[in-house]
Amino acid sequence: GFSQLMLRDENLDARQSQYLGTINRSGEHLLALINDILEMSKIEAGRTTLNPTTFDLPGLLQDLEMMFRVRTDAKKLSFSVEMIGDVPHYIVTDINKLRQVFINVLGNAVKFTERGGIGLRMRADRDGATGSFLRVEIEDTGPGISADEQGKLFQYFEQTKTGQKKGTGTGLGLAISREFVRLMGGDITVSSQ
After folding, report:
1. pTM of the entire structure?
2. CA-based nearest residue to 153, from 123, 126, 177, 119
3. First-to-last C-alpha distance (Å) of the chain
């Protein structure tokens, strides 16, 4: 918080701004790591709960598109968000957990894609007995994940070789995402070539 306040000081020179930016990014990284570990502990203890609300699904997708458009544009990647067929305007689930899942998966897609682009497609699948559910596909033109490493993706503290080379992440984001999706009555899978 203090580093953010100091960054607003107009009397800072370029080097001071750079140092404060590094301090701020490091603090944000540590905060995210602490939050992930706390969330993982809550999941392990069976204390994670859903807080369902009714919310505007296209509005959430629009917010995510604006958030990630900056990052994809900076890397000169294409980015598309598509709702296919009769997707409901309003749904009931835990918007914060759903948003975190999208941020984790889209964030990985952007992080590991250097050329081409990323696409998010959403459709409603109607299954008479159990009602309807959303099917979301996120596709990227990144390097792919070998078959022997795909099993690691959703394990706590596990990273693929590509993830280790990038030197970012903790191996918690996708594991937490899978738990959130399962808590919401769904599942998350990967296919790669």
Report:
1. 0.80
2. 177
3. 43
How far is the C-alpha of 79 from the C-alpha of 76, rounded, in Å? Answer: 9
Give the whole-angstrom CA distance, residue 21 versus residue 87.
41
Q: What is the pLDDT of residue 82?
A: 96
Indicate the Cα dihedral angle 177, 178, 180, 185, nearest 10°.
150
* Residue that wins the pLDDT comparison between 27 and 191: 191
Q: For strands 78-84 and 117-127, give the pairing.
A: parallel
143 exposure class (CB count in 10 Å sphere: 0-12, 13-18, 19+): middle
Question: pLDDT per residue over 127-182, tens digit each?
Answer: 656 667 899 999 999 999 888 888 888 887 777 777 667 666 677 889 889 999 99
Q: Which tokens hold the place of 51? A: 């807080």
How far lies 122's CA from each of 86, 89, 134, 139, 151, in Å?
10, 12, 7, 12, 24
